[in-house]
Design goal:
This protein has about 90 residues and is mostly beta strands. It has a domain of about 60 residues. About 0% of the residues lie in helices and about 25% in strands. The strands form four sheets. A two-stranded antiparallel sheet has the order 1-2. A two-stranded parallel sheet has the order 3-6. It is globular and about 45 Å long.
Length: about 90
């Protein structure tokens, strides 16, 4: 899932557990930042999991801002990845 940066009114150190699921953003999206992913290898990705769920290498977070910052991939390897499992970007609303 694509990384996001956000500003939250919460303190720096959490004092309560975060609500599930963990990828729900609880703050305002930030406008600057860069995610750097180095030397990752994606192995044996299929469009569906054994349980029938959707499976993709790259996707956007449906619970965050529409503004995504750059993601820089260096030394990335795709090993036995189904082309239909490369990326999922939901339809605009």
């Amino acid at each position: 899932m694509a990384s996001t940066f956000s500003k939250s009114e919460n303190g720096f150190h959490p004092d309560t557990p975060s609500p599930k699921p963990n990828h729900i953003q609880h703050g305002y999206g930030s406008w600057n930042g860069v995610t750097k992913l180095n030397n990752n290898e994606f192995i044996n990705f299929r469009k569906r999991t054994r349980e029938g769920g959707t499976n993709t290498v790259l996707c956007l977070n449906p619970f965050t801002s529409d503004a995504y910052h750059p993601h820089v991939f260096t030394g990335t390897k795709f090993n036995n990845v189904d082309p239909s499992a490369m990326a999922y970007i939901m339809a605009p609303v």
